[in-house]
C-alpha cells in the first residue's frame, strides 16, 4: 500500500533540512588560527636550530666588558675570512679600537694610526686579498637558498643563504651578501682589491644596499648589536672620532675555536633553509594579530628576523 503523497513530501523536506543543518557553515570546524612568530619559535624542533661553528665565530670583547658575537661567512668571502681567522688567532685587534661611529650608517674598527709605517704589523696574515664582492654557486659547495616571495629593488632575487641575507642574479648565477642591519664588511680604499680584512665595519643604520656588490662582506653580528649601535656618534668627517679618548677600546677579538669551550657563547641560530623559517617569514610578512588591521603582503629582505636563542643546559 502506497503512502499518501503529502506524507512523502513531508519526509523529503525533513530529510533535506537535516542534511542542510549538518552542512551549515556554523557547524563546520573553524580554520586554525595562524601561529605568531613567537608561537612558531616556541613550537620549533631541535632540528630547526644550529650551533655556531667555533671556526667561524668571532668574539669581540669591549673594554667595558660587553661582548659581540659575529658569525663569519666563508662562502661569500673565503680569502677574507681566512685572513680574519689568522688576524684573530694572532691577536691583531687586541688593544686596538672602534674608531668610527657614523649616524645611521656603520661603526668601524681597526688600527687608528694614520702613518702606514707605524701601523700594527699583520703578522702572518696576507697583505693583499682579491675583491670578493660576489660568488657563483659552484664555488661554494652545498648550501641552502631560501628565496623570499617578494620583489626587491636591489637584486633580481633575494633570500637567505646559509643564514645570511643575500641577493641573487639567476642570469649570472652569482650571490652576494646584502648590507642589512648587523652585516659585517671589510673596509677598503678606492681600489677593489685594497682590503686586507684588518679594517672591519658593521651596519648600524638603515640598510645601505647601494654598497651591495661593492664591498667584501665577511659575516654578520648574531648577538650584542646593542653594544655597537649605541656607541656615541663620532664628530669628525664620516663619523670618525676626533680625539683618542673617544675611541672604544677593544679588549680582545678572538676566534671562538681559540677560547675554552666553557667561555664560548652557548647560543643557537634558526636555520634559514627549513619549513619553519618559511613559516616565520610569512608570519612576519602578514601580521595577523589583533593590532594589525591591514596586511602588507610584502616583506623587505632586511626586515626578516634571524632568531637566536640560548642553549638550554
Structural description of this entry:
Helix content is 17%, strand content 24%. It has a single domain (37-114, 123-310), classed as Beta Barrel (Cyclophilin), CATH 2.40.100.10. The chain has an eight-stranded antiparallel barrel with strand order 2-3-13-11-12-5-4-14. It has a five-stranded antiparallel β-sheet with strand order 6-10-9-8-7, with no helix packed on it. It has a three-stranded antiparallel β-sheet with strand order 1-15-16, with no helix packed on it. It is of the alpha+beta class. The chain is globular. The longest helix has 18 residues, at 5-22. The protein has helices spanning 5-22, 37-42, 78-89, 225-229, 275-285, and strands at 49-51, 57-62, 67-72, 97-101, 106-110, 135-136, 145-147, 157-161, 164-169, 174-177, 183-186, 200-203, 216-223, 248-255, 267-270, 308-310. Mean pLDDT is 90; it is low at 4-23.
Task: Give the SSE map.
Elements: H1 5-22, H2 37-42, E1 49-51, E2 57-62, E3 67-72, H3 78-89, E4 97-101, E5 106-110, E6 135-136, E7 145-147, E8 157-161, E9 164-169, E10 174-177, E11 183-186, E12 200-203, E13 216-223, H4 225-229, E14 248-255, E15 267-270, H5 275-285, E16 308-310
Antiparallel strand pairs: 1-15, 2-3, 2-14, 3-13, 4-5, 4-14, 5-12, 6-10, 7-8, 8-9, 9-10, 11-12, 11-13, 15-16
Order of helices and strands: HHEEEHEEEEEEEEEEHEEHE
What is the annotated CATH architecture? Answer: Beta Barrel
Instruction: Please identify the structural class as seen in this structure.
Output: alpha+beta
Major sheet strand order: 2-3-13-11-12-5-4-14
Arithmetic mean of pLDDT? 90
The residue ranges in which pLDDT falls below 50 over 5 or more consecutive positions are 4-23
Rg over alpha carbons: 27 Å
The main pleated sheet reads as: 8 strands, antiparallel, barrel
Q: What name does the CATH topology carry?
A: Cyclophilin
CATH class: Mainly Beta
Amino acid at each position: 500500500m502506497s503512502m499518501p503523497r503529502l506524507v512523502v513530501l513531508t519526509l523529503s523536506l525533513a530529510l533535506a533540512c537535516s542534511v542542510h543543518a549538518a552542512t551549515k557553515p556554523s557547524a563546520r570546524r573553524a580554520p586554525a588560527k595562524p601561529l605568531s612568530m613567537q608561537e612558531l619559535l616556541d613550537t620549533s624542533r631541535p632540528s630547526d636550530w644550529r650551533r655556531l661553528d667555533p671556526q667561524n665565530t668571532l668574539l669581540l670583547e669591549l673594554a667595558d666588558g660587553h661582548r659581540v658575537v659575529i658569525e663569519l661567512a666563508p662562502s661569500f668571502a673565503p680569502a677574507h675570512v681566512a685572513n680574519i681567522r689568522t688576524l684573530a688567532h694572532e691577536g691583531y685587534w687586541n688593544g686596538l679600537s672602534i674608531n668610527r661611529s657614523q649616524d645611521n650608517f656603520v661603526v668601524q674598527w681597526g688600527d687608528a694610526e694614520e702613518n702606514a709605517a707605524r701601523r700594527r704589523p699583520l703578522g702572518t696574515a696576507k697583505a693583499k686579498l682579491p675583491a670578493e664582492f660576489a660568488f657563483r654557486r659552484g664555488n661554494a659547495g652545498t648550501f641552502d637558498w631560501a628565496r623570499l616571495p617578494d620583489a626587491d629593488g636591489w637584486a633580481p632575487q633575494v633570500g637567505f643563504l646559509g643564514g645570511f641575507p643575500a641577493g641573487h642574479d639567476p642570469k649570472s648565477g652569482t650571490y652576494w651578501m646584502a648590507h642589512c642591519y648587523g652585516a659585517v664588511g671589510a673596509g677598503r680604499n678606492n681600489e677593489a682589491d685594497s682590503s686586507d680584512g684588518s679594517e672591519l665595519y658593521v651596519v648600524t643604520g638603515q640598510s645601505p644596499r647601494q654598497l651591495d656588490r661593492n664591498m667584501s662582506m665577511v659575516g654578520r653580528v648574531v648577538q650584542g648589536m646593542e653594544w655597537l649601535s649605541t656607541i656615541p656618534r663620532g664628530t669628525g668627517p664620516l663619523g670618525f672620532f676626533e680625539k683618542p679618548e673617544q675611541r672604544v677600546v677593544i679588549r680582545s677579538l678572538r676566534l671562538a675555536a681559540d677560547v675554552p669551550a666553557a667561555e664560548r657563547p652557548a647560543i643557537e641560530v634558526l636555520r634559514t633553509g627549513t619549513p619553519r623559517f618559511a613559516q616565520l617569514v610569512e608570519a612576519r610578512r602578514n601580521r595577523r594579530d589583533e593590532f594589525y588591521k591591514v596586511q602588507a603582503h610584502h616583506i623587505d629582505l632586511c626586515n626578516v628576523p634571524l632568531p637566536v636563542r640560548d642553549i638550554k643546559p
